[in-house]
UniProtKB/TrEMBL annotation:
Protein family (similarity comment): Belongs to the polysaccharide deacetylase family.
InterPro entries, alphabetized: CE4_u4-like (IPR049591), Glyco_hydro/deAcase_b/a-brl (IPR011330), NODB_dom (IPR002509)
GO MF annotation terms: hydrolase activity, acting on carbon-nitrogen (but not peptide) bonds
Gene Ontology BP term (one): carbohydrate metabolic process
The protein's name: Chitooligosaccharide deacetylase
Superkingdom of this protein's organism: Bacteria
Domain NodB homology: 34-154
Pfam families, alphabetized: Polysacc_deac_1
Function per UniProt: Is involved in generating a small heat-stable compound (Nod), an acylated oligomer of N-acetylglucosamine, that stimulates mitosis in various plant protoplasts.
């Protein structure tokens, strides 16, 4: 799987890191978990096989004891808050948002408080006080209010903007082609994105690189990418796969 030519640019970049005696920091986030499924089992099996820590962004309103029981014995797993219902409240012609300015702030914040408390109770050992906004979008006015409920970080998409009122632990490589095939992106394309992120970090940005997946909608291309990525990186001297809790102070 990992001998494909598409992966050579990553091997070359990681060799550059190794030659410099440096290690790149990566973390893994998967969104939309609610209940045990065959797809979730497949994802967790990859985590186990390669000993790569994973963060699951769980939708609080619809989850419960079945998922908690399934995850309780899972090693190197973190549960975070994925909005409340993952419902879109934005007008049709605009980008989807659950945590936007389209409802009273007090209503949105109450949902985020409930989501935090519910997942912390369901997953006491694996819970991390981080909010993952659905669609990676959140009204900036909400950010200063989150710490009062216990949140210590937010995770969206793209390089983190400086001077935020709460820590940002973002993702940077989304393996899904949401606007095209709705399946996994071509491996060469994703390798290119990852290499660019690595080059950015080599040049001085210390932000951990986040990989973003959605287990419920993966096709064969997406599953193959995760397996190949772990094959290439899990035991590499220049790669440090970390638990998201390590980045929250």
């Amino acid at each position: 799987m990992s001998d494909r030519a598409a992966w050579q640019p990553l091997r070359d970049e990681l060799q550059r890191w190794a030659d410099a005696g440096r290690r790149a920091t990566l973390w893994f986030r998967d969104d939309d978990a609610i209940e045990p499924t065959a797809a979730l089992d497949r994802l967790l099996a990859l985590s186990d096989r390669y000993a790569v820590p994973m963060t699951l962004a769980v939708i609080p309103a619809y989850t419960g004891e079945p998922l908690a029981a399934r995850l309780a014995s899972q090693k190197a797993l973190t549960v975070t808050v994925h909005g409340w219902t993952h419902h879109n409240y934005a007008p049709d012609e605009t980008k989807k948002q659950e945590l936007g300015p389209h409802r009273p702030q007090a209503v949105v914040l109450d949902e985020l408080r409930r989501g935090f408390d519910k997942l912390k109770a369901l997953h006491p050992r694996q819970f991390a006080p981080m909010l993952v906004p659905p669609w990676n979008r959140i009204d900036k006015a909400l950010l200063p209010e989150l710490a009062a409920f216990g949140y210590r970080a937010v995770s969206v998409y793209g390089l983190a903007k400086p001077d935020q009122p709460i820590a940002l632990v973002n993702t940077h490589v989304d393996i899904m082609d949401w606007h095209g095939t709705h399946g996994g992106r071509a491996h060469g394309e994703l390798v290119g994105y990852l290499v660019r992120e690595l080059q950015n970090r080599f040049d001085g940005n210390s932000e951990p690189i986040g990989i973003l997946t959605h287990h419920l909608v993966h096709d064969a291309l997406a599953w193959d990418f995760i397996a190949a990525l772990f094959e290439e990186t899990a035991a590499h001297a220049a790669v440090d796969w970390r638990n998201v809790g390590d980045f929250m102070g």
